[in-house]
């Protein structure tokens, strides 16, 4: 294919997919050309993942035609797609923790020499891929214990070793901070210059403007709009995604009360990830925590919630020292944490929605020491309704979209009526519609006098929901900004000290 050839390398025509009598894709057309980035956008459940899985060979279409490099294309498996030059990086991490980075990069396709695994060659190529993404880490290191951001970069490095001609990136920056995201964008630009086509799925709409050539919007299993450029106003994209006009992305922020609910004094991590942190949060205040990946944000809120040990300092609730030594200590004192990784730490995927909501609330549900199905279901249904969970109590949590799983996590903890709610990356990988409902919930909590702490890598989000923002840099407290003084520049200046 010549450099001037503008014909698509991938074409989809009238792709449909049904599960029984339910059709989830309705005759979708899509073209991707060499050296371009096509953003595939839509709310959770719009059909993006199903379409991507069809292209990558994970799911078979019910009808329709695909061509790849002008030849008929119908991959029977992900390996068949990979062999054809189509690679997909999934949002959910699929690394094997007990294997090394190099082994994960080449799992299922180990390099051999003389009939034996060529570990040196694998380590060299894995290291090269990591360096291209700015990750200076030994390929011999086990994946176990690495941060979510580093694991995401390893997934991307894994795809880069495929020398693919088409890459599908599903929420590649969901776990990345600003610096890592820019490194990824530079790599995408390099891949574009080499003629690689890229399908880019993301809920971070501002970044779409930076790297995409075209935008395809899906809603309810159909392609509803296509823009022939990437610099489309976010508002226009969102309205196409949700099918209605949006007056504002973030609701109004309530004014906090004068009473201090939570105070942190001289808090330092036993692992050295943060040190000498001091702040106080008022009743009904939304307190944002910003900073680059690795700044110690998650480790700090885990310590406040009793999940990680501290070496010094104390935590006070209404002026009384309550420094938790375990999560149960924090929960008993009215401090709950909604963790960053909802699938591993927030919900039990193969248990029902009702059971997940019930687990932290068994004492309230029990009557005379006994829990009946009727009481459990009534309790759960009440909170499913209150939080707008799109699912029924008997469904497994693993069947829900990311946004609805997050609502289940929120429901189970807020049923305890906590005094302090800590939200770590509350909308990571969640579509615009679900994000809006979570923002409204945050403001409702604040208006009820609950103290809310929000950790977010999304600057627009942390600016949009916070009364004040503490910025962390390299484990230190770089400063606290009032809402009127906070903007993306002032935050980044402190974050890069």
TrEMBL record:
Superkingdom, taxonomy of origin: Bacteria
Protein name: Sugar ABC transporter ATP-binding protein
Alphabetical list of SUPFAM superfamilies matching this protein: P-loop containing nucleoside triphosphate hydrolases (SSF52540)
InterPro entries: AAA+_ATPase, ABC_carbohydrate_import_ATPase, ABC_transporter-like_ATP-bd, ABC_transporter-like_CS, P-loop_NTPase
Keyword Cell membrane (UniProt): yes
The keyword Signal appears for this protein: no
A Pfam family: ABC_tran
Keywords assigned by UniProt, alphabetized: ATP-binding, Cell membrane, Membrane, Nucleotide-binding, Repeat, Sugar transport, Translocase, Transport
Domain ABC transporter intervals: 10-245, 255-497
An MF annotation (GO) of this entry: ATP binding
């Amino acid at each position: 294919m010549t450099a001037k050839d503008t014909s698509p390398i991938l074409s989809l025509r009238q792709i449909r997919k049904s599960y029984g009598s339910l059709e989830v894709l309705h005759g979708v057309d899509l073209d991707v050309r060499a050296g371009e980035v096509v953003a595939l956008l839509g709310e959770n459940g719009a059909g993006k993942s199903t379409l991507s899985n069809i292209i990558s060979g994970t799911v078979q279409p019910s009808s329709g035609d695909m061509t790849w490099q002008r030849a008929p294309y119908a991959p029977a498996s992900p390996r068949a797609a990979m062999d054809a030059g189509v690679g997909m990086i999934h949002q959910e991490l699929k690394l094997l923790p007990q294997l090394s980075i190099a082994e994960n990069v080449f799992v299922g396709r180990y390099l051999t020499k003389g009939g034996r695994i060529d570990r040196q060659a694998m380590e060299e190529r894995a290291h090269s891929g990591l360096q291209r993404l700015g990750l200076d880490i030994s390929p011999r290191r086990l994946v176990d214990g690495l941060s979510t951001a580093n694991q995401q970069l390893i997934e991307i490095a894994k795809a880069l070793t495929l020398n693919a001609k088409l890459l599908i990136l599903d929420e590649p920056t969901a776990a990345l901070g600003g610096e890592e995201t820019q490194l990824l964008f530079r790599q995408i630009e390099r891949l574009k210059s080499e003629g690689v086509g890229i399908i880019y799925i993301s809920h971070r709409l501002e970044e779409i403007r930076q790297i995409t050539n075209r935008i395809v919007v899906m809603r309810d299993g159909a392609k509803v709009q296509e823009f022939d450029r990437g610099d489309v106003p976010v508002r226009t994209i969102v309205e196409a995604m949700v099918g209605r006009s949006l007056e504002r992305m973030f609701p109004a922020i309530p004014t906090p009360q004068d009473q201090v609910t939570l105070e942190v004094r001289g808090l330092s991590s036993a692992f050295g990830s943060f040190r000498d942190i001091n702040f106080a949060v008022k009743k009904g205040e939304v307190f944002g925590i910003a900073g680059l990946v690795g700044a110690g944000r998650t480790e700090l809120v885990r310590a406040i919630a009793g999940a990680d040990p501290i070496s010094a300092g104390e935590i006070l609730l209404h002026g009384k020292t309550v420094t938790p030594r375990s999560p149960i200590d924090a929960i008993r004192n009215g401090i709950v944490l909604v963790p960053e990784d909802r699938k591993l730490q927030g919900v039990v995927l193969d248990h029902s929605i009702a059971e997940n909501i019930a687990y932290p609330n068994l004492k309230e549900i029990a009557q005379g020491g006994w829990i009946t199905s009727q009481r459990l279901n009534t309790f759960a249904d009440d909170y499913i309704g209150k939080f707008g969970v799109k699912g029924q109590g008997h469904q497994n949590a693993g069947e829900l979209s990311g946004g609805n799983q997050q609502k289940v996590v929120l429901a189970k903890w807020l049923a305890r009526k906590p005094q302090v709610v800590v939200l770590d990356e509350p909308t990571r990988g969640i579509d615009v519609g679900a994000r809006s409902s979570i923002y409204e919930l945050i403001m409702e909590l604040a208006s009820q006098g609950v103290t809310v702490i929000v950790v977010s890598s999304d600057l627009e989000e942390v600016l949009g929901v916070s009364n004040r923002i503490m910025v962390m840099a390299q484990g230190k407290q770089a400063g606290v900004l009032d809402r009127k003084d906070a903007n993306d520049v002032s935050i980044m200046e402190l974050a890069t000290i």
